[in-house]
Hints:
Layout: E1 3-5, E2 24-26, E3 31-35, H1 43-49, E4 53-57, H2 59-71, E5 77-80, H3 87-99, E6 104-109, H4 111-124, E7 128-132, E8 144-148, E9 154-159, E10 166-170, H5 171-174, H6 179-199, H7 206-231, H8 236-256, H9 264-272, H10 283-300, H11 304-320, H12 336-343, H13 359-367
Parallel strand pairs: 3-10, 4-5, 4-6, 6-7, 7-10
Antiparallel strand pairs: 1-2, 8-9
Helix pairs in contact: 3-4, 6-7, 6-8, 6-10, 7-8, 7-11, 9-10, 9-12, 10-11, 10-13, 12-13
This protein binds zinc ion.
Zinc ion binds next to helix 10.
Amino acid sequence: MVRIAMMESPCDNPKGNTLPIGSESVIAPRIVLRGRGVLAQARERLLALARRWLLVGGQTSSSLVLPRLQALGIAPVQVVTLRECTEALRQELATVIARQRIAGVIACGGGKAIDAGKLAAHDAQLPVVTIPTTGATCAAWTALSNIYSPAGAFQYDVPLRTCPELLLLDYDLVQTAPPRTLAAGIGDALAKWYEAAVSSRQSTDPLVVMAVQQARVLRDILLQKAVPALATPGGETWQQVVDATVLLAGLVGGVGGARCRAVAAHGVHNGLTHWPQTHRWLHGEKVALGILVQLRLEEMQGYPLAGVARAQLLHLYHQIHLPCTLAEVGLGDEDAPALAAQICQPGNDIHRLPFAVTPAQVLEALQTTTQPWAKTQVPAG
Length: 381
Ligand SMILES: [Zn+2]
């Protein structure tokens, strides 16, 4: 297990799921297997961890993973998650684990199902194996689960004791997902740089400095390879971009830890989740829009490079079909003032920006994400 004991600030969240000061911060899964058909080769590793498994996943991902597990002689108890990772689901999974005497959890699918499986294993102190079936998030890597309300609104995140015991990144499974999911993963992974550079710009901690530089490398890989990867699903470049969104993005979060945090891009995402009409858009698609809003806020403060970065991203987003405006995530102009107010609620990640923001400024940023950067007016003072 890769662990580094760190003295760090507790992770604050409204439910008090805090890592105590001096706790271990986990950087990476104990074992990562990647390649075509790796699930079919994982029998011994799975049986070494547990004999009685719970499989947590969505309908599509479970129908992909279950027969492959059965072919290995593993017959898990199955919970199909058709909804958000909520406190109610957390309790439900705890009950199943206790009743069925489960010894390990296999979490498959996208971010929400994997978060639910990781959290269930965390609560029951069991090993967890993650099997992503999309490239949409780095949830298969991280020691973090996000909790949503039954209506789909982001509530808070829960730091977990460890990263997964085993991560199986099987390209054959990921390739079955719609291309849109990988584009969303690219949006979420790009945010690592734009957020870490802001939250940790001043840090002198070597691990954080390294994480920020890794995030920059991750951004560069995605800027160069996102378009060719999506044009050739399953190809070598596509596999590299899947590695970047699922593994490298997770590594940045692991190395950077709690001090290399989400800022405005995820703050905008979290605000958007309060509008049910945005639920048709994936996490990474909303985060991608959030990056543009964050960059607009930086531009409005007079950070000239933010405008250059936004123009670069707009060019990419148009090519890989990531949303650039509120209208492209299903919201109208009439929704924008309430959204700006929601984003500015106390505790939102947007308040980690190195400058204070008002709802009026956020509203302006929300409404001007596609404004040509060269014409940006920098307010006096
Ligand atoms: Zn994210």
